[in-house]
Amino acid sequence: MSHRKTLLAASIITGLCLSGALYAQDNTQAQPATSANQTEQQAEKANAKQLATVTVTGIRASLQASMDTKRNADAIVDAITATDIGKFPATNVAEALAQVPGVTLDRSIPGTQRVSIDGMDPSLNVSLLDGHPVAQAIWLFGDNPNRGFNYSLLPAEFLGQLEILKSPEARVVEGSLGGTVLMHTVQPLDVASGTLSGSFGVNYNDMVGNQRPNGSVFYSWHNSDKTFGVDVAAQHYELYTSREGMENYGYSSVASVNTAALAAGNTAIQNEINSGAIKPTDQIPNQLSAANFQQTEKRNSVLVNLQYRPNQNFESSLSLLYMKDGLDNTNQSMYPWATHAPGGITSLVEGPNGIIVGGTQAGAACFNNLACASTAHTFTDNYARQSMVSTKGIDWKARYNGDGWSLAGNAGISTSKNPMTSFIKEIFYGGPFTWNINQGVQFTDPSTANNPNYWADNGWGGNEETILYKAKDTYGQVDFTKDFDGFFNELLVGVRYASHWESQVEQAYTGPQQLTLNEIGYGGLTNLSGASDLGLSNSFVQHVQTAGLNAIKNAVLSTPGFGANKDANVYYDNTWGVQQENTAAYAQGNFGNDVVHGNFGVRFVHTQFTSSGYNVPGYCAAADTFNCAFPPGFGYITQKTTFTNVLPAVNVAWNITPDFILRGAASETVAYAPYNQMAPYFEANDTVLTATAGNPNLKPYRSANFDASAEWYFNNQSVVAASVFYKDVLNYIVNSATTQSRINGSWTTPGFAQSAAALVATGQCTAGGVCNYDVTAPVNGGRAKVKGGTLSYQQAFGDTGFGLRANYTYSDGTTRSGGLLPYNSKNAYNIAPYFEQGPYSASISYNYRSSYLAGGYVAGAPATYVDGFKELDGSVAYQFNKNFSVTLDMLNLLNYKYYAYLGSKTQLSEEYVTGRQFMLEAHFKF
Asked: Strands 840-849 and 852-854, how do they pair?
């Protein structure tokens, strides 16, 4: 059966790198890095001017280094430079980027992963580590794969600087409509030999009352001639997180539920319709669920950089990356299900916008009965998920500098895989309840409902599902640069080949025995403080639970002979592979003098997609067996599509005065749909009849972009800047909701009979198992437009120690038909004051983003709207001496509610809180 901190840059700066000047750029010609080779060329030029005069220590100096990167760039760029490696005051890189104008985060799950830039979907950004991609397997069972970089998997301790390139250049790797995030590590020949630094501390979440250790270390060495060096960064990180709240799995019409109620001899709904109290078109929440997601993350990471520079003409380096991230989690969803047993409904209450907001359910409790026939149905899905993401990478680059020219090359490979496993035991209670869309469900007899003897499997024993998810990036690039005297001073040409492979194989093992809760393992009553904070009912705060991950897992695996029966439909619908191959060539000319500088060029990109998946005839799906012969045209099929794009780009910066700069940029860019959306797959929830599907015929996003900015650098560490952006997207891919009639893949699964009967009674399925699924699938959506702008302000107030960093972003994105663009918030702002004087430093950061459209987070869930979100973070630090310091970082101090809805705010989809997080760390540096 298929079931479905943020801390301001000031805080960041008390954190991470060893020297912001390592990446400071030349005052007239330096440009944002794109490939690793070009990064080194520009850094080499910059070092001659910068390293002797800039020493980065503390918040202000690091802000100055970030500001200088922005100031000296040809394109429109923002940067974050951090000091003192090991002190990054955020759980991941995404929370650092939240301080940048135009950057917003999605916080649907603890450990922020997704970053939007200038109002664009996170999948429409490109993120590179030292100029190369990092392969990423998904970590959450049932997740929608996303091209957006999963920052939760990358330790912040590995980084020295972050740049966000908002206006592209011809030499920049293609694939971004929003922005390109360039992450730089520290190179061994750029820091003092023998440098040793690190940190150790604890992470604590007040909602779960649990603390976990973390630690990191960085060591760098080079020989006395500075011709060879090596550095090593390693981290061990643990974090216990929880997400508590209420979910709703879709809506049914009063008319359909009434049909089933009348068939069961219940006229209560019809009587209310006749009286005018409710209407047949009103929508009833299917299941209001008490949601409790808990996860312990354990991550070990190592990054090694080797650098060889025997003379001024030649340099070569090798980077080795290894990460292993354990993300085991449990997810309990307790949902009294009124529409599953319409015969027990005694009353319904109509609310605003045609939504039924409350009701009552009658039914007799059944003691220790595996086949309880009550007319009040409450199910609890108990998921135990094991997830271990392993990521490896090796990247090599080399450069030879001739007399006015250089030749560079780089190549690498990165792999990531996750053999995920999910076990589920579903238990049942038959007993009366009342429900309210604002408070959840309250059992009429809590003492009975909280007695484990009244809970047992009821018709379905659960299952085990496995997904082997793999991703692989392979790339190679050659760049040639020629210098010229005069206004046009540099020509860059290059070629690049990149291949990305992504695939999954899913299996479902059926037939676990039915057990009582006591046989599974009773874990006492929950005490969900998050549900209490949300004002949810006592029954949602305290209800029965299992003994945890191992109890659920063992209950499934303990069945004699378990593992022999596989669900064919799950395998066929969810096994796929996609390969994207990009071959690109570019030419770019750089120009400039003391007044005006910039670049112009063109990038040629040829893309080939190879999409593979199963096409299964209906009679095979109905049989749900592997022993079914596929006729011609069916089976594992492969489809290829190719696209060619010519992408011009121009950037101009005009120094009106030495402290006032105007910039303009125009470009064409392409981006691509998430890999799974290109595959011919169909992932369904056969109980609530929702599904997601792929579409191999998706075209690339293509956009014409115009950007401009004005920047006034009125003092040290001080700037006022304004920018505007306009993106005319010629093909924007949108999710389309349709209803499709398909064979229910679980119809013949043992134990599904009770659910099947309810689906037939409500008219959602035929007796033969053909059901109407609400399917979300991507389609070529036509044109879309995004327009907006940013305002940013940064100032240090003399010698007071106080300073302020603030920004505001306006982004208005719509499709041609007037629909909203995913993840586009119209308004977002950040206010971040800081203080630093002597050994003391402190900072706070307040972030806000307005409501936005988000895709369903778990496959099969409908797209939702997310209400505006506020976050308050803080950091304090004390420097004992040049070698030792201590920091306390405080995240999500408001414990703000994440609220998602369908259509109107009265149509609840989900609401959560995740608790406040505190990180106490001691830092050392020698």
From this structure: unpaired
Q: Any idea which of 79-83, 186-190, 542-546 has the lowest mean pLDDT?
A: 79-83
Residue 350's beta-bridge partner residues? Answer: 356
| Residue 119 counted as domain residue | yes
Q: Look at residues 152, 184, 137 and name the one whose alpha carbon lies nearest to residue 391.
A: 137
Q: Write down the pTM of the prediction.
A: 0.86
Under DSSP, the state recorded for 676 is G
DSSP letter (8 states) at residue 187: P
- Which of 748, 840, 234, 206 is closest to 529 using CA atoms? 206
Tens of pLDDT along 862-890?
568 999 999 999 889 999 999 999 999 89
Distances from the Cα of 588 to the Cαs of 37, 172, 591, 615, 657, in angstroms? 15, 10, 10, 45, 27
Closest CA to 143 of 500, 499, 420: 420
Check whether 82 has a pLDDT greater than 70: no
Plot region of 281 (φ>0 → left; ψ -120 to 50 → alpha; else → beta): alpha
- In this structure, the strands spanning 690-693 and 770-780 are parallel
Residues 589/31, Cβ–Cβ less than 8 Å? no
Give the residue from 877, 689, 858 showing the smallest Cα distance to 770. 689
The per-residue pLDDT for 113 is 64
Domain range for 783 is 9-248+292-333+385-424+465-510+567-745+773-925
Mean pLDDT of the chain: 86
Q: Is the pLDDT of residue 81 over 90?
A: no
DSSP per position, 507-541: EEEE-PPP-BHHHH-EEEE---HHHHHTT--HHHH
* Residue 780: CB atoms within 10 Å: 16
SS3 59: helix
What DSSP element (H or E) covers 328? strand 314-336
The candidate with the shortest Cα–Cα distance to 648, out of 586, 602, 712, 711, is: 602
C-alpha 528/C-alpha 547 separation (Å) is 15
Give CA 150 to chain center in angstroms. Answer: 6
Taken in order 60, 62, 65, 70, the sign of the CA dihedral is negative
% of the chain residues with pLDDT over 90: 61
User: Most distant CA pair in the chain: distance in Å?
Assistant: 92
Quick check: 30 pLDDT over 70? no
- pLDDT above 80: residue 708: yes
Q: Can you tell me the distance from the alpha carbon of 477 to that of 131, in angstroms, rounded to the nearest whole number?
A: 11
Is 105 contained in some domain? yes
Residues 6+ apart with CB under 8 A from 629: none
Q: Is the pLDDT of residue 112 over 70?
A: no
Please give the Cα distance from 630 to 633 (Å, whole number).
8
- Say if residue 54's pLDDT is above 80: no
* C-beta of residue 844 within 8 angstroms of C-beta of residue 872: yes
In the block, tokens 């060096």 appear at 229
Q: CATH number of the domain that 914 lies in?
A: 2.40.170.20
| Contact predicate 350/277, CB 8 Å | yes
Could you give the C-alpha distances from 74 to 35, 160, 450, 677, 704, in angstroms and in order?
16, 21, 65, 36, 19
DSSP state of 249: -
Q: Which strand (E) or helix (H) includes residue 481?
A: strand 463-483
Structure tokens at 853: 């459209």
Q: With respect to residue 191, please indicate whether it lies within any of the assigned structural domains.
A: yes
Q: Are 165 and 651 in contact (CB under 8 A)?
A: no
- What is the total count of domains within the chain? 1
Cα separation of 710 and 723, whole Å?
Answer: 6
Structure tokens given for 356: 């039924």
- Let me know if 329 is exposed, middle or buried by CB neighbors in 10 A (0-12, 13-18, 19+): buried
- In a domain, residue 227? The reply is yes
pLDDT tens per residue, range 590-607: 999 999 999 999 999 999
